[in-house]
Amino acid sequence: MLIIILFIYGSCTGSLLVAMASRYVTGDSYLFPASHCDTCQTPLTYWQLVPVLSYTLLRGKCQTCGGTIPAVTLIVEVTAGLLATTVTDWTSFLIVLWLALWGFAALCDWQTQTFPGWVSWLATGFSLWHHSPLVWLLGCACLLAIHLLWPRWRHPVIGDGDLEMMVSYGLLRGVTATAHWLVVACLLGLWRARVGGRIAFLPDLVVSAVGWWLVA
């Protein structure tokens, strides 16, 4: 029963992350207006807002206009639900929150190749919670240096958000786990680049992080 409850909470969080990312892309408020179809702007009724179930009943289409609801909505809701079922203590809770934050950033980055800067700071705070004050100072200094230096680099070989997540992951999981994580993420990135050209790398980093957490 507890696993089912955790899955419901997680899938609701995933639905919220998708909605927030969509509004970040369009520049709308996170709070207003109420949830609506992105195609016809029709407000959604209560039964159309149930994570996973509503998408399944609607068969991935708006009931009013027939517009397609992106499959990523269902994928994120299910994945967030599965992540929530892994919460067993305070440490796992923080890691799942960390993954949720970067998942939101990845959804934004996937569509705009940008994401809100506060995500990096908050996620890094979660990754530093068990470290000493000195590591806190060094971690924050590293993040600040990235924020200050990357805008001055004309042709960076990697995005500042990607590097910020790498720093945050290293602080959270350690050197060995970071190496394994990066190998899978790079393979995903290379495959997507071969298929579709220039890509946002953050989604690959997040997919790899989620995968390692679920199978570990």
Helical stretch count?
Answer: 9
How much of the sequence is in beta strands? Answer: under 5%
The SS-based structural class is: mainly alpha
Helix and strand sequence: HHHHHHHHH
Which regions have little confidence, pLDDT < 50, spanning 5+ residues?
none
Distance between the termini: 23 Å
**Radius of gyration from the CA trace?**
18 Å
Shape: globular
Mean pLDDT: 89
Strand count: 0
How many distinct folded domains?
Answer: 2
Helical content stands at 55-70%
Major beta-sheet overview: none
Describe this entry's structure for a reader.
This protein is mainly α and 216 residues long. The chain has 2 domains: 1-85, no CATH class; 89-216. Helix content is 68%, strand content 0%. The chain has helices at 2-26, 53-58, 71-84, 90-112, 118-128, 133-149, 160-173, 175-196, 202-215. The longest helix is centred in the first third of the chain and has 25 residues, at 2-26. The two termini are 23 Å apart. The model has no long low-confidence stretch (mean pLDDT 89).
